[in-house]
Specification:
- With 137 residues, the chain is α+β, with helices and mostly antiparallel strands.
- It has a single domain (7-132), classed as 2-Layer Sandwich (Beta Polymerase, domain 2), CATH 3.30.460.
- The protein is 53% helix and 18% strand.
- It has a 4-stranded mixed β-sheet, sandwiched between helices.
- α4 (84-93) crosses α5.
- The longest helix is centred in the C-terminal third of the chain and has 30 residues, at 102-131.
- The protein is globular, with a radius of gyration of 17 Å.
Length: 137
């Protein structure tokens, strides 16, 4: 762990970068940057919710632009297409650095919790059936 890393400045730079964009609704930082365990070689994990579904090329271009600006490798996740497990991890352990509108965050939060709960119930039923020896029940 490095004491030289100024987390506040990194998060502020990321927030400023996305504040200029009209197509981004929410931005979270997660992983070692959120838990304050980054080292000089750590990348920065960023999760983005777009106003409208984007695409791989847009995410990749943003990732490259942000990496260049921060002079550090960035991993970027598109929350519009990510599954409920990663979304829930971002909500639980991430730091929100930008929200265009509190209502968008609230809707994302409720949708993610509901999707995660549905997945947990489905997995629970599948696991119960596997334990009973019935895979397709």
């Amino acid at each position: 762990m490095s004491n030289d890393i100024n987390y506040h400045d990194i998060l502020a730079e990321i927030a400023a970068f996305f504040r200029r964009r009209t197509d981004v609704a929410l931005v979270f930082v997660f992983g070692s940057a959120a838990s304050r365990t980054m080292t000089e070689g750590s990348d920065i994990d960023v999760a983005i919710l777009f106003e409208l579904p984007s695409g791989f090329f847009k995410v990749d271009a943003l990732k490259d632009e942000l990496s260049s600006m921060l002079k550090r490798e960035v991993d970027m996740v598109d929350l519009n297409t990510t599954g409920p497990v990663l979304k829930m991890q971002v909500l639980k352990k991430g730091v929100m650095v930008f929200a265009k509108d509190k209502r968008i965050y609230n809707r994302f939060f409720v949708d993610t919790v509901n999707q995660y709960d549905d997945l947990k119930q489905t997995r629970k039923d599948c696991e119960r059936n596997i334990l009973k020896g019935r895979i397709y029940a």
